[in-house]
Specification:
Rossmann fold, about 50% helix, globular
Length: about 400
């Protein structure tokens, strides 16, 4: 009851501004929009969104934003908030342009009288800090370190913001290590706040979904749900799968993400398409883009997340929700979710082959691991997240 009263006190009927990069539905964006849904429905909040880089929104992002009750979406022009430690005419111009950038948003946002600003990723965190300084009604913001992101610790606006921001929130020990490496760390205002599960379970009949995606109904399907970014090891999975599928006729592989997320993701998607063809895997691998994640999850038997770095990965949480065994890179965030799982591995091809083969050969192990994961993920709920976030905000008000 005490925690419930605290959350009511902190959030009841507050006006909140979310700050994000783009209108593309990645893990950070799902967390932010999902938070909007909780705060509007449970606490009567009014939640708006500032997109720093572009006002273009992918269809799935736009649809999810509506479901999550985003009231206003703001964007004016390309972001400019940079000043280097150098004495030059160009640097003075940078300072002037940066001040105009922040002041322009002050003029736009001041009438809305926001109480809190919640950023997602590094540049939005920098923008959030300076808006917190110039908007008179804003009582709290924080730096939100989530997984792999661009760091510019020598840039003066970022350097100052990283030191002066009221709090630093990360979603896993990895985020804490990264922040400490680039900015230093004040332990008194640093918090690990694990993500919550934003997805709700939707039932789809496996046979119908497999038919839709042209997957054999009796296949044992491995799948990775992840944007086609550089840090995701799609090619390593393909190499391992080629070896595994040579010995198991039933093995099948699905990749899904958003091909249109950026110029790089389009290039990588096309390269994977070519690689699948050259490896002779066209009949055993399905490469998807912008499909319903719930439908894809319903078609899988095993979830994969092999990557260079992770915070608290939404993909692993979603696999667990759907009762899937998971083979994942042994990053701290994955370990936090999967605990002592024997399927946490280094990014080694032979190890991946071994674990994939093990799950192909042992249906009872697939069932056991899937049941364990489904039960464990129940503790990563929105109520616990809101309670912990309330405590952080209350401490800094």
């Amino acid at each position: 009851m005490e925690n419930s009263n605290l959350s009511d006190k902190v959030f009841e009927k507050k006006k909140i501004l979310l700050v994000m990069h783009y209108g593309s539905l990645g893990g950070a964006e799902r967390q932010g929009l999902g938070l909007s849904k909780i705060l509007t429905e449970n606490f009567g909040c009014e939640v708006s969104l500032l997109l720093t880089f572009s006002d273009e929104m992918q269809p799935d992002f736009e649809q999810f934003a509506k479901v999550c009750h985003i009231k206003h979406i703001f964007h004016t022009h390309s972001p400019y908030l940079v000043c280097w430690k150098e004495l030059s005419y160009r640097n003075i111009k940078r300072l002037v342009w940066s001040m105009k950038y922040i002041w322009g948003y002050r003029k736009m946002l001041k009438p809305y009288e926001f109480d809190y600003i919640f950023p997602f990723l590094n540049f939005p965190s920098k923008v959030a800090f300076y808006l917190y300084k110039v908007l008179p009604t804003v009582k709290f913001t924080f730096w939100h370190q989530l997984g792999l992101d661009v760091f510019k610790p020598d840039e003066l606006f970022e350097k100052f913001a990283s030191k002066a921001v009221p709090a630093v929130i990360v979603n896993s020990p990895t985020g804490l290590e990264l922040y400490k490496k680039h900015y230093g760390l004040d332990e008194e205002k640093s918090y690990i706040l694990p993500q919550y599960l934003t997805m709700e379970y939707l039932y789809f009949e496996k046979e119908k979904i497999r038919n839709k995606f042209k997957i054999p109904k009796n296949a044992i399907v491995f799948g990775m749900v992840a944007h086609y970014r550089e840090d995701k090891k799609h090619e390593l999975i393909l190499e391992a799968f080629k070896k595994v599928s040579a010995n198991f006729d039933e093995a099948f592989l699905v990749f899904t993400g958003n091909r249109e997320s950026s110029g790089y993701t389009r290039i990588k998607y096309d390269a994977l398409e070519k690689s699948i063809r050259e490896k002779g895997l066209g009949q055993k691998v399905r490469l998807l883009s912008q499909e319903s994640i719930e439908e894809v999850l319903s078609s899988l038997d095993v979830g994969l997340l092999i990557s260079e770095i992770e915070g608290m990965p939404n993909a692993v949480m979603e696999y667990m929700l759907y009762g899937l065994p998971v083979i994942a890179s042994d990053h701290p965030g994955c370990k936090y979710l999967l605990k002592e799982s024997p399927y946490l591995i280094s990014n080694d091809r032979e190890l991946l082959i071994c674990k994939m083969s093990e799950l192909l050969n042992r249906p009872s192990e697939r069932d056991q691991q899937g049941h364990r994961n489904r039960e464990h993920i129940k503790s990563f709920n929105a109520e616990a997240y809101i309670t912990d976030l309330s405590k952080i905000i209350q401490r800094h008000l």
